[in-house]
Amino acid sequence: MGQTRKIFSKLTLSSGLLLISVYLLILISSCSHKTPKNINNLCDIFSEKKKWHKYAKKSTKKWGTPIHVQMAILQQESGFQYDAKPGRKKLLGLIPWKRKSSAYGYAQVLNETWKEYAKQTKNWGADRDDFKDAIDFVGWYTFHTQKITKTSKWDTYNQYLAYHEGRGGYLRGTHKNKQWLLGVAKKVDGSAKKYAAQLKTCK
Protein backbone atom coordinates (compact mmCIF):
# COMPACT_ATOMS: atom_id res chain seq x y z
CA MET A 1 0.00 0.00 0.00
CA GLY A 2 2.84 2.38 0.90
CA GLN A 3 4.54 1.74 -2.45
CA THR A 4 1.27 2.44 -4.25
CA ARG A 5 0.92 5.77 -2.45
CA LYS A 6 4.45 6.75 -3.43
CA ILE A 7 3.78 5.93 -7.07
CA PHE A 8 0.48 7.84 -6.95
CA SER A 9 2.20 10.85 -5.38
CA LYS A 10 4.89 10.84 -8.08
CA LEU A 11 2.28 10.61 -10.83
CA THR A 12 0.30 13.46 -9.27
CA LEU A 13 3.45 15.60 -9.02
CA SER A 14 4.42 14.79 -12.62
CA SER A 15 0.93 15.66 -13.84
CA GLY A 16 1.01 18.92 -11.90
CA LEU A 17 4.40 19.90 -13.33
CA LEU A 18 3.18 19.02 -16.82
CA LEU A 19 0.11 21.22 -16.43
CA ILE A 20 2.27 24.09 -15.13
CA SER A 21 4.65 23.67 -18.08
CA VAL A 22 1.78 23.71 -20.58
CA TYR A 23 0.29 26.80 -18.91
CA LEU A 24 3.65 28.62 -19.04
CA LEU A 25 4.09 27.73 -22.72
CA ILE A 26 0.63 29.07 -23.51
CA LEU A 27 1.35 32.22 -21.52
CA ILE A 28 4.68 32.81 -23.27
CA SER A 29 3.10 32.15 -26.67
CA SER A 30 0.24 34.58 -26.02
CA CYS A 31 2.68 37.29 -24.93
CA SER A 32 4.91 36.83 -27.97
CA HIS A 33 1.88 37.01 -30.27
CA LYS A 34 0.38 40.06 -28.60
CA THR A 35 -0.32 42.91 -31.02
CA PRO A 36 1.83 46.02 -30.36
CA LYS A 37 0.00 48.72 -28.41
CA ASN A 38 0.79 51.51 -30.85
CA ILE A 39 1.03 50.20 -34.41
CA ASN A 40 1.36 53.73 -35.82
CA ASN A 41 4.76 54.39 -34.26
CA LEU A 42 7.68 52.24 -35.34
CA CYS A 43 9.84 53.26 -32.37
CA ASP A 44 7.10 52.15 -29.98
CA ILE A 45 6.69 48.87 -31.86
CA PHE A 46 10.39 48.03 -31.71
CA SER A 47 10.65 49.18 -28.10
CA GLU A 48 7.88 46.78 -27.16
CA LYS A 49 8.94 44.01 -29.56
CA LYS A 50 12.72 44.10 -29.51
CA LYS A 51 13.10 40.85 -31.43
CA TRP A 52 10.98 42.29 -34.23
CA HIS A 53 13.60 44.96 -34.81
CA LYS A 54 16.27 42.26 -35.00
CA TYR A 55 14.22 40.23 -37.49
CA ALA A 56 13.41 43.33 -39.58
CA LYS A 57 17.09 44.26 -39.83
CA LYS A 58 17.97 40.70 -40.76
CA SER A 59 15.37 40.65 -43.55
CA THR A 60 16.58 44.02 -44.87
CA LYS A 61 20.19 42.83 -44.90
CA LYS A 62 19.18 39.62 -46.68
CA TRP A 63 16.78 40.99 -49.29
CA GLY A 64 17.52 44.73 -49.48
CA THR A 65 14.00 46.01 -48.84
CA PRO A 66 13.98 48.87 -46.30
CA ILE A 67 12.54 48.17 -42.87
CA HIS A 68 9.91 50.91 -43.18
CA VAL A 69 8.59 49.44 -46.44
CA GLN A 70 8.26 45.94 -45.02
CA MET A 71 6.64 47.12 -41.80
CA ALA A 72 4.15 49.34 -43.63
CA ILE A 73 3.05 46.39 -45.76
CA LEU A 74 2.59 44.20 -42.67
CA GLN A 75 0.66 46.94 -40.90
CA GLN A 76 -1.78 47.21 -43.79
CA GLU A 77 -2.16 43.49 -44.30
CA SER A 78 -2.85 42.41 -40.73
CA GLY A 79 -2.44 45.29 -38.31
CA PHE A 80 0.30 43.05 -36.85
CA GLN A 81 -2.23 40.40 -35.78
CA TYR A 82 -0.51 37.03 -35.98
CA ASP A 83 -3.64 35.03 -36.83
CA ALA A 84 -5.36 37.52 -39.15
CA LYS A 85 -7.70 35.99 -41.73
CA PRO A 86 -9.96 37.50 -44.40
CA GLY A 87 -13.65 37.76 -43.65
CA ARG A 88 -16.15 35.12 -44.66
CA LYS A 89 -18.48 35.32 -47.63
CA LYS A 90 -22.20 35.45 -46.84
CA LEU A 91 -24.53 32.79 -48.21
CA LEU A 92 -27.82 34.40 -49.23
CA GLY A 93 -26.40 37.59 -47.78
CA LEU A 94 -26.87 36.28 -44.23
CA ILE A 95 -25.16 32.97 -43.43
CA PRO A 96 -21.38 33.04 -42.83
CA TRP A 97 -19.76 30.88 -45.53
CA LYS A 98 -16.25 30.18 -46.78
CA ARG A 99 -13.46 32.70 -46.28
CA LYS A 100 -12.67 34.95 -49.21
CA SER A 101 -9.19 33.43 -49.60
CA SER A 102 -6.61 31.26 -47.86
CA ALA A 103 -4.63 34.35 -46.74
CA TYR A 104 -3.35 34.01 -43.20
CA GLY A 105 -0.98 35.53 -40.67
CA TYR A 106 1.00 38.73 -40.33
CA ALA A 107 1.65 39.04 -44.07
CA GLN A 108 -1.70 37.61 -45.26
CA VAL A 109 -0.03 35.06 -47.51
CA LEU A 110 -2.02 32.61 -49.63
CA ASN A 111 -1.36 28.88 -49.18
CA GLU A 112 0.25 28.39 -52.59
CA THR A 113 2.40 31.51 -52.33
CA TRP A 114 3.67 30.38 -48.93
CA LYS A 115 4.57 26.97 -50.36
CA GLU A 116 6.50 28.71 -53.15
CA TYR A 117 8.37 30.82 -50.59
CA ALA A 118 9.24 27.82 -48.41
CA LYS A 119 10.45 25.87 -51.45
CA GLN A 120 12.62 28.67 -52.86
CA THR A 121 14.15 29.66 -49.51
CA LYS A 122 14.34 26.10 -48.12
CA ASN A 123 12.62 27.50 -45.02
CA TRP A 124 10.43 24.42 -44.61
CA GLY A 125 9.56 25.08 -40.98
CA ALA A 126 8.33 28.62 -41.62
CA ASP A 127 4.97 29.68 -40.20
CA ARG A 128 2.76 32.53 -41.36
CA ASP A 129 1.91 33.39 -37.75
CA ASP A 130 5.60 33.76 -36.84
CA PHE A 131 6.77 37.36 -37.26
CA LYS A 132 10.33 36.31 -38.11
CA ASP A 133 9.09 34.23 -41.05
CA ALA A 134 6.44 36.75 -42.10
CA ILE A 135 8.83 39.67 -42.46
CA ASP A 136 11.35 37.45 -44.23
CA PHE A 137 8.57 36.58 -46.66
CA VAL A 138 7.85 40.27 -47.35
CA GLY A 139 11.55 40.83 -47.99
CA TRP A 140 11.67 37.83 -50.33
CA TYR A 141 8.52 38.85 -52.18
CA THR A 142 9.54 42.47 -52.72
CA PHE A 143 13.03 41.35 -53.79
CA HIS A 144 11.58 39.19 -56.55
CA THR A 145 9.03 41.87 -57.44
CA GLN A 146 11.92 44.17 -58.24
CA LYS A 147 13.56 41.48 -60.38
CA ILE A 148 10.38 40.68 -62.31
CA THR A 149 8.64 44.07 -62.59
CA LYS A 150 11.65 46.40 -62.17
CA THR A 151 9.85 48.11 -59.27
CA SER A 152 12.30 49.59 -56.78
CA LYS A 153 12.30 48.01 -53.32
CA TRP A 154 12.06 51.58 -51.99
CA ASP A 155 8.87 52.26 -53.99
CA THR A 156 6.28 51.35 -51.36
CA TYR A 157 3.32 52.45 -53.47
CA ASN A 158 3.99 50.15 -56.43
CA GLN A 159 5.49 47.37 -54.34
CA TYR A 160 2.22 47.20 -52.41
CA LEU A 161 0.15 47.13 -55.58
CA ALA A 162 2.24 44.19 -56.83
CA TYR A 163 1.96 42.54 -53.43
CA HIS A 164 -1.82 42.82 -53.46
CA GLU A 165 -2.49 41.94 -57.09
CA GLY A 166 0.35 39.49 -57.56
CA ARG A 167 3.19 40.27 -59.94
CA GLY A 168 1.33 38.95 -62.97
CA GLY A 169 -1.72 41.06 -62.18
CA TYR A 170 0.43 44.11 -61.59
CA LEU A 171 2.16 43.71 -64.96
CA ARG A 172 -1.24 43.33 -66.62
CA GLY A 173 -2.42 46.50 -64.89
CA THR A 174 -5.28 44.92 -62.95
CA HIS A 175 -4.87 47.60 -60.28
CA LYS A 176 -5.40 50.57 -62.58
CA ASN A 177 -9.20 50.59 -62.46
CA LYS A 178 -9.44 49.82 -58.74
CA GLN A 179 -9.63 53.26 -57.20
CA TRP A 180 -10.10 51.83 -53.71
CA LEU A 181 -6.87 49.84 -54.06
CA LEU A 182 -4.93 52.84 -55.34
CA GLY A 183 -6.16 54.67 -52.24
CA VAL A 184 -4.94 51.85 -50.00
CA ALA A 185 -1.53 51.82 -51.72
CA LYS A 186 -1.27 55.56 -51.14
CA LYS A 187 -2.08 54.99 -47.48
CA VAL A 188 0.63 52.30 -47.21
CA ASP A 189 3.11 54.64 -48.87
CA GLY A 190 2.23 57.32 -46.32
CA SER A 191 2.71 54.85 -43.45
CA ALA A 192 6.11 53.84 -44.82
CA LYS A 193 7.26 57.46 -45.02
CA LYS A 194 6.08 58.04 -41.46
CA TYR A 195 7.84 54.89 -40.27
CA ALA A 196 11.05 55.96 -42.06
CA ALA A 197 11.04 59.32 -40.30
CA GLN A 198 10.32 57.70 -36.93
CA LEU A 199 13.05 55.10 -37.38
CA LYS A 200 15.66 57.85 -37.59
CA THR A 201 14.72 59.03 -34.09
CA CYS A 202 14.45 55.64 -32.37
CA LYS A 203 16.78 55.15 -29.42
Cα shape:
globular
The first-to-last residue Cα distance is 65 Å
In the CATH hierarchy, the architecture of the largest domain is Orthogonal Bundle
For the record, the CATH class of the largest domain is: Mainly Alpha
Domain count: 2
Query: How are the strands of the largest sheet arranged?
Result: 1-2
The beta-strand count equals: 2
How much strand content do the residues show? Answer: under 5%
Q: Give the rounded overall mean pLDDT.
A: 87
Alpha plus pi helix count: 8
Order of secondary-structure elements: HHHHEEHHHH
Spatial extent as radius of gyration = 21 Å
- Give unreliable regions as ranges: 21-30
Q: Would you tell me which CATH topology of the largest domain applies?
A: Lysozyme
The secondary structure category is mainly alpha
The largest β sheet comes out as: 2 strands, antiparallel
The portion of residues assigned to helices is: 55-70%
